Amino acid sequence: MANVLEVKELSKQYSKVLAADKVSFEIGEGEIFALIGPNGAGKTTTIRMISTLLQPTSGDAVVAGHSILKAPEKVRESITYLPDEAGAYKQMTGIKYLRFMAGLFTSDIDTLNGYVDRAKNICGLGDRLNDKIGSYSRGMIRKLLLARAVMTKPKLAILDEPTSGLDVLNALEIRKTIKKLAAEEGMSFLLSSHNMLEIEFVSDRVGIIAKGHLMVTGRTDELKERYNAPNLEEVFERVVKENEIH
Amino acid sequence: MKFINLLKKELTELINAQMILGLVVSLALFWLMGNVMQSVTSELAEDAKNTNVYICDMDDSDVTHELIKDMESNGAKVNKVTVNGEDYASGFKDNSFKSYVVLPKGFADQLTSGEKPEIISVSKLKSASTFSGLTGGTDTTEALINKYVSIEISKQKGVSEEDLKHIESELTVVNQTVVADKSAKISSGVVLGKITSTNMILPIIIMVLILMTSQSLIASISNEKIDKTLETLLSAPVSRGSVITAKMLAAAIVALINAGVMMFGFSAYSKGMTGAITSDLGVSDKVGKVLSAGDAMKQLGLNLGVTDYLIVGVQLFITIMICLAISIILGALVNDSKSAQTMLLPIMMMVMIPWFVTMFTDVNSLPTVPKLIVYAIPFTHTFTAIPNLMFGNTTELWIGLVYQIIVFAVVMFFALKLFKSDKILTMSLNFGQKSRFKKNGKTIED
Fold first, then answer.
1. CB A189 within 8 A of CB A156
2. Among B18, B7, B100, CA closest to B57
3. Contacts of A44 in chain B (CB under 8 A)
4. Are A97 and A88 in contact (CB under 8 A)?
5. pLDDT at B326
6. Closest CA to B89 of B187, B177, B195
């Protein structure tokens, strides 16, 4: 399995605080990788660096063969990014928003229409796409944004807390969509979440991050076995304690 | 105790660094306005105490010599002014005085024949500010002459009731107004009224345009930051330069549409005002042919041509660009909807100060420090552009334009640098708050 993302000792120093400290991991084609950790662990900083939004202090990441330092514009062609609790333009209708966003990825009208049709199918909002986004519920906005993030079939879709603030049914639907896209279309995902039980369900592999350090990566089953824990939350607890001792 | 606790919490929320900053800015504004008014009122006070009288004695007769002696005996300090023929502008060789009275040829003849003689009042207009017309008039001189003339006529004719009426009738004054090296037969008050009425709206248009443009761009950037749509945009395959250029261009287009609509309304208003002013010239009908305000403006070179309007247009465009560049920086500082409103304050101050100052006085007449502060505000030069063009102060106009271009280049450089760096996402203005890094010993973001 070829790697879509290779993160190499990525660090970010904010003033006196080291937000990410030599974070390294990789994501294979069609793989769902989740960075898990509490609030303030460095998940968003790492994701923002990979998304070319922030300049790393040191290290590099290669997305689909392109370095975030040397060819950020090429990286942006290969990824899509869905920020945590992101909104959309409230005055636009859902369909106009999809067309606007698709227009940033292609100038070809047929390709653009293809992207929008795909998004329409994925979000399942039907006629509500003709309504202004301002009238959407939080779940509807999240579905629209997820559809936007995957409509261009990016090599890597980066989703920061994709289900935060959603009810059980909406969260479940989004998780199923992510799993389906990875399994059927071979799309790779980098997720972040502080909800470890949810991640256990959706991801192939996880990376546990705390205080800017990526402490361990591995398949959920492997980690549970290695740390003799019934779920990821307890794996996380043991990993953090182990690292404090050392 | 519970109430005190509640009150303390409410006060802590209300009295914050933003409020204190607002107070400091307001105080600074009042200090500046105080200085402006002080310089204007001190000029008025000095003018009231001034015993100097400026006379051009074209008649050069025994009667006029006697008149001048009489004025001096009344406490006036008479200064002689020399004029070449009817070139009244030549009388103002230095800038020590703003007006003078001409005793024309035939003054003595008219007086000896028992008639009230004609005199000419010449005033130099240097700026279009409201207070510039209040100082340096010829009222004192006119009163002194009228007094002398009245006595002379009463001596000649005896003081009958009819004669007294005649003697006390108003002096026929022909007003001449000089602008730069041109003069026109019209009172400076009428010219000033015409300029004020036609130019009153333009500064308001400039002010509204700047505020609307800034507000829309600050709101656009801050909304994108708060909704995190900016992160989505910046992670898409488009350059940051094109994101910011699109924002600026859209705001500039909207500003130009607004400017077009407002200028259209302004021209309709201006036409209406021209009719009103021309029909009320305020000059005695007895004095032969009087110029209309429009003709006088033309003769004095106060009417703006196509080139002048082009220059004003260019200056307005640069002003909008400066305002957009500043707005990008201010918008980037926003981290919530409350701070988005506060961010308009600096722009508001930068518009209100030059607007008030140029409305009431000539910036050049301010004391050095306030003058430098006012001139340092880039928008001042937009407010002074039209008066500078009208009064031929081309050096000031070009210096202002060049200064604005430099300010735009500098601010735009920093705005682009900011937009292309991490700071567009991480920077925020936290008045009086410790950085979240320092407070928690952790990270700004996750």
1. yes
2. B100
3. 445-446
4. yes
5. 94
6. B177
